[in-house]
Design brief:
The longest helix is centred in the middle third of the chain and has 16 residues. This protein has one domain: 3-Layer(aba) Sandwich (Rossmann fold), CATH 3.40.50.300. α1 packs across α10 and α5 runs parallel beside α6. The chain has ten helices and eight strands. Helix content is 37%, strand content 18%. By secondary structure, it is of the alpha/beta class. The chain has an eight-stranded mixed β-sheet with strand order 3-4-2-5-1-6-7-8, with helices on both faces. The structure holds adenosine-5'-triphosphate (ATP) and magnesium ion (MG). Adenosine-5'-triphosphate binds next to α1, β7 and α9.
């Protein structure tokens, strides 16, 4: 069975979609079969970040409403050996996705891929609950500020309540040269305040922002420090001590 990882954040705009798209792309570049699921009903973004917006015809709402098969709604990104996208609906009123829908869908799909990466909506409401319900691990994306820190702490409690055993944090949009300035929480302070481990930090970098708008994930540039950083984060998230990916759980 594949691993199911929810990428989540208490606050909108923390970098969930950025992290989900690059996490999935790195895993796919390493030869894994990866399915990205966008659970932002009415506010989907993954198709734009992958440059697949013109290929999405059906979405997860169509599967729930039995308008199409699962196979029809999944779009393949042909730049990678095996990266697939299941988009959220553009219409927020299309179909209410219940946790039971998501569990059934993930049950059917997890046997077919090594990783399912779920881009969740912000906060911890009903849609979020459906998005995380089938996950066996979660990555909380936070930014380097007290608001995000508090939200991440609350979200960690919610994830534990949802019974998600493995939770990690990634601190995004870190500005080089400011850590320890006292202007906002230091990385070490954040790591201490949160109970779950910090899997890595991602710098504020215009190349990341440009890539999000270009349809080409930033990690497609193989020899950059951003890509190396992502690969290290993936190592901390998924690899065992001997370096093998811990796929069977
Ligand atoms: N490390 C970074 N460096 C520069 N820009 C970034 C970085 N991370 C994210 N961004 C930019 O920040 C914005 C928000 O990122 P993203 O869409 O991934 O957040 P989100 O948490 O998914 O937001 P939402 O809650 O709206 O779904 C985007 O414009 C993205 O390009
Ligand atoms: Mg998003």
């Amino acid at each position: 069975m594949g691993r199911i990882t929810a990428v989540t954040a208490g606050k909108g705009g923390a970098g969930k979609t950025m992290f989900a798209v690059n996490l999935a792309s790195c895993l796919a570049m390493k030869g894994r079969t990866v399915l990205l699921i966008d659970m932002n009903s009415g506010f989907r973004h993954l198709d734009i970040c992958l440059g697949l917006e013109n290929q999405v015809i059906y979405d997860i709402g169509d599967i729930i409403e039995e308008i199409c098969t699962i196979r029809k709604a999944i779009v393949r990104d042909r730049r990678f050996p095996a990266l697939y996208l299941l988009s959220a609906s553009q219409n927020p009123d299309k179909a209410e996705i219940l946790p039971s829908h998501m569990r059934r869908l993930c049950e059917k799909l997890s046997g077919k891929c090594d990783h399912i990466i779920i881009d969740t909506p912000p906060g911890a409401g009903k849609e979020w609950q459906a998005a995380v319900t089938a996950a066996d691990s979660a990555v909380i994306v936070t930014t380097q500020d007290y608001i995000s820190l508090r939200d991440s702490d609350s979200l960690e409690r919610k994830l534990l309540q949802e019974g998600i055993p493995e939770i990690s944090v990634v601190i995004n949009r870190v500005r080089a040269g400011y850590d320890g300035s006292g202007l906002f929480p230091a990385i070490a302070e954040m790591a201490e305040a949160l109970r779950c481990p910090v899997a890595g930090i991602i710098q504020e970098d215009e190349n990341i922002h440009i890539a999000m708008n270009s349809g080409v994930p930033v990690v497609c540039k193989k020899d950059s420090y951003v890509t190396r950083n992502f690969l290290n984060i993936i190592g901390r998230l998924f690899e065992t001590e001997n370096g093998d990916e811990n796929q069977v759980r």
